[in-house]
Write a structure and sequence with these properties.
The complex is a heterodimer. Chain A is of the alpha+beta class. Chain A folds into 2 domains: 31 residues, no CATH class; 112 residues, Immunoglobulin-like (Sandwich), CATH 2.60.40.2470. In chain A, 25% of the residues lie in helices and 35% in strands. Chain A is built from 4 helices and 9 strands; from the N terminus they run ααααβββββββββ. Chain B has one domain: Immunoglobulin-like (Sandwich), CATH 2.60.40. In chain B, 0% of the residues lie in helices and 55% in strands. The chains are: A alpha+beta, B mainly beta. At the A-B interface, helix 2, strand 4, strand 6 and strand 7 of A face strand 3, strand 4 and strand 5 of B.
Amino acid sequence: MILMERRNALKAGGSFGLLALFGAFGLLKSGIALADWNKPAFTSKTMDDALAAMGAMSPENNSVFIHLTVPEIAENGAIVPVTVVSSLPKVEQISIFVDKNPNVMAANFIFPEGTEYMVTTRVKMGQTANVVALVKADGKFYRTAKEVKVTAGGCGG
Amino acid sequence: MGNPMKIRAAVKDGVTEVKILMQHEMETGLRKDADGNLVPACFITEVKAQHNGRTVLEAQFGQSVSKNPYLVFRFKGGVAGDKITISWVDNKGDTRSDETAISA
């Protein structure tokens, strides 16, 4: 695909077209790499390590302002729906963890101004475990957790 | 170059809801194939959603996100016909970008 584009650009002639193409490609690349993948957090094996890697050493427990929706029992651990809604003001990030997975951190979401503080996704769970939601709001961390009973394994499907 | 995503975006009462279904194996790197060899990890690491070029959500994924990742979020604003662009990149550097128009 990229090669084809290059060929077309070459055909079109003129170094300007080629430069513009590379420029646009470079921009796209750097654009998507803006939010750095937090390797230490995503490779953490324990909740404590993952929270430390997120800079959230002792988040305040708060189930009033963080609404975590997960099934009580998951028949299929490969697809467990998770919804996190926060009614805290100035939410910057919402992260989702599964405390007994080999790598505990599942996902991290960054909320620009104007985006509502909710997200729904699906995670894999290897066994019965707690799903933990971590919310960063106005520079402070809050967490809540709920247990999901898994009746069939999620890893290896 | 991954397979196309399914994206739905609809605006209601000034809030646009975006639903995305990506097509990706999301291999954990912990699973073994029939011969007992580890299947190498291959999973989406970053996702970015844009509304008319403005970023409305950024996400980072680990191996624990389900195969064919599903994502729902909402942002204020957006009118029918506006462009929603979703892009992802995986740990092997593969990328995919798809767009849709907001429906009323």
